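Subject line: Sequence and fold of a protein, written as C-alpha cells
Enclosed: The protein record, placed directly beneath this head.
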Amino acid sequence: MTDAAYLLVHDDREYLLEPGEEFGTDLGVLEVPEDVADGDTVETHLGTAFEVRELRGPDLFNHLERTGAPMMPRDVGLVMGHTGASGGDRVLDAGTGTGILAAYLGRAGADVTSYEVDDEFADVARANMATAGVADRVEVRTGDITEELDALADGDPFDALTLDTGDAPAVVERADEVLASGGCLAVYSPFVEGTRDAVLAAREAGLDGIETLETIQREMDFSDRGSRPSTAGVGHTGYLVFARAP
C-alpha cells in the first residue's frame, strides 16, 4: 500500500501534501519531491525542516476532507474489533460520508464496497480513499443500498456489513441475505431511536449475538494536586449494535 499523500511535520504544524506538491506557509514554501518517502526531511525555501511521515489511522481522521461529522476513532475501533475485518474479507458498507471507516477497513486489508447517496459526498470519499492509499480496495458507489439489496443478495456473500445510515434497520432486516454464515454486522447511530429499531430488525432477521453499546470516553487530568477524570463533559458519541449471521 502506497499513500498518495504524506504528513509533513514541524513541531505542532502538520500538512497533508502529495509528492510534487508546492505549498506556501509562513515558515516558507514547501516543495515536496516526487520521490519523497517516509523518514525524509524536506526544507522550506527559508530553511525550516519538516519531517515526512506516512499516514496512520488518526491522521486520516484529522486530515481527510470532511463532508460532515465522521465516525470517531473510538467508534471505528469498536467496529474493527467486533467485526474482526482483515485481509481478504469482503465488507459491505453504507453511509460512506467522509470515508473514515471505509479507509480503516481498506488499510486493514479488507475489500470494501461502500454506498453513499450524495453525489458530492461520494466524490470526496473517492478522493479520500486515493489519499489514504486504498482506492484499489475501497469502491465507493453512488446510490441507495436499500435499492441494491436484491442484486447484492444474488452475489457472493460478505464477511461484514457496516452501516451508518438512517435507514439501517431496513438493511438489517435482510442482513442474513448478504452476509456469509458467521458474518458480522455493525450499525452506528447517534440516536437511541435508530439503535432500538436496528436491534428489533436484527431480532426479526434471526441474527445471533445481538449486543448494543454506548460509546463514552473521558480524558484524565494529571496535576501536582492529584489525578482524576476530566471535569469536562462526558464524551458520548453514539451507539453501536453488533450481531452475527447464523
Notes: The helical segments are 57-63, 73-83, 100-107, 119-131, 149-154, 168-172, 175-178, 192-204. The CA atoms of residues 38 and 53 lie 5 Å apart. The first strand starts at residue 6 and ends at 10. The chain has a mean pLDDT of 95.
